[in-house]
Amino acid sequence: MPVRSAGIAVALAFALGATGARAADTKPAEAPAPAAAGSKPAKAKKAGQQKQGKPEKSDAATAAGKKPLPAARLDAAREALAGDDDAAAVAAAGSLGASGAGNAAEPLAEMLAAGASPSRAEAALDALAKLGGAGALTAPRTFEVLDLYAGHRAPEIRQRAVKALGTVKDTRVTATLLARLGDAAPGVRAAAGEALAARRERAATPRLFALVKRGDAGAAGPLAALATPDLIPQVAELSGTVDDGVLASVMGDYLQRADVPDGLRVDVVRTVARMGGAAATTALVEYIASVPAKDNRQSKREAQKLLDEQAGATK
Predict the structure, then answer these.
(1) Tens of pLDDT along 170-217?
(2) Least crowded by CB within 10 Å, which of 28, 129, 179, 212?
(3) Is residue 62 part of a domain?
(4) Parent domain of 283
């Protein structure tokens, strides 16, 4: 291990040991499991983060208030989905997805089960994902159809199927999402990671760590969302062997989690600053920006101080 990465890891491990009692969750991280390597996708969205401010009405509650679509509208949708006009079929799928109705998934699942062109399949999968986000995926065959399409030969379709699968309230989903972390396509791996993080599936942590260890940027956000405090020194140990941009992304996203004690954030802020480089600077800047202006927490002050020191050193 390079001297610099060893120093970072040791310093953070010591700091975490001092603040571990303040952490909300100190369950030991599992050993990394093998996962497929691949090219790095664009930075994944920050999964599992909590929004500041007034809580909004849940999607499930919103969907519960939606009335089922009348039989006539479902029949018209089925006719459009089965017709020769691709544009009409795509439009029908979009309309069903936007309805938020519990029975809107039925015609979509039926079309996918029968087989569909790529454009129709993508529209139907996007619609199912939207319905799932509103808590409206109640069609009995939904899981089976999405599970089938998660193994489709086209990466774009696999990615959409995985995204929709993540919204299904079915325990069988976890196994499929874990398997997709080994997908050859970076976008599919990222979608699976995001879905697992949103579902708080800690069983995914070892595989996500293994992907980060191989420089997979799409695993950074999901790993940050699921990581326990004792996993962070292991991430720091990778400095010098993995793109620091990926590591800074993990730690930067971890800083923005609402459940991290501020004393622990201070230690992570210092670790990120020691990494140096543009990615570390960006992580600190984004963390400061994520904290409400009136919140003068210690970690925010420390991040600003370190940024100021870096700026002064470059003058």
Answers:
(1) 899 999 999 999 999 999 999 999 999 999 999 999 999 999 999 999
(2) 28
(3) no
(4) 1-29+227-315
C-alpha distance across the termini of the chain, in Å:
32
Burial 138-169 (b: 16+ CB within 10 A, else e): bbeebbebbbebbebeeeebbbbbbbbbbbbe
Which one, of 244, 176, 182, 172, lies nearest residue 208 by Cα? Answer: 182
What residues are paired with 239 via a beta bridge?
242
Ramachandran sector of residue 138 (left: φ over 0; alpha: ψ -120 to 50; beta: rest): alpha
Rounded Cα gap, residues 43 and 144, in angstroms: 30
Q: How many domains does the chain have?
A: 2
Q: What is the pLDDT, as a whole number, of residue 33?
A: 40
User: Do the Cβ atoms of 221 and 249 come closer than 8 Å?
Assistant: yes
Distances (CA, A) of 220 to 234, 242, 248: 14, 12, 9
Q: Is the same domain home to 185 and 233?
A: no
Residue ending a domain, among 204, 235, 250, is: 204
Torsions phi, psi of 260, nearest 5?
Answer: -85, 125
Q: Is the confidence at residue 48, as pLDDT, over 60? A: no
276 Cβ contact list (under 8 Å, min separation 6): 244
Most confident of 4-8, 51-55, 64-68, 306-310: 306-310
Written as six digits, the tokens of 145 are 């159809």
Q: How many beta carbons lie within 10 A of that of residue 213, not counting itself?
A: 20
Report the distance separating Cα 213 and Cα 208, nearest Å.
Answer: 9
